[in-house]
Amino acid sequence: MAEHNILGKSGEEEAIRYLVAHGYAIRHQNWRRGHKEIDIVAEKDNELIIVEVKTRKNRLFAEPQDAVTPMKIRRTVSAADAYLRFFQVDLPVRFDIITVVGETGSFTIEHIEEAFYPPVW
User: So what family is this one in (predicted)?
Assistant: First the structure.
């Protein structure tokens, strides 16, 4: 597995530990349906939280959350819609971003709640 994939997987695992420690129930990790994918699906306070995780070694070139482009938002919202339909979920949905920066074992985590809203097409 490529080094960036290993770092990304470690970042997602760290994000899960963070969410669980903060009272979130994890429903799915890396949920896929066709070409649609969601990093983490969590639930807290009767709300479904779709989490996009961005892991980087450092912030030298850009903030990790800057990688969540309008196209990525559209794909994430589309995947969330597929998830809601597939599992027949009837809960309010929130879209968060968790940034994980550093090396395995010494990550810095930032949780951006309501990081974006579904675009109007």
Answer: Belongs to the UPF0102 family.
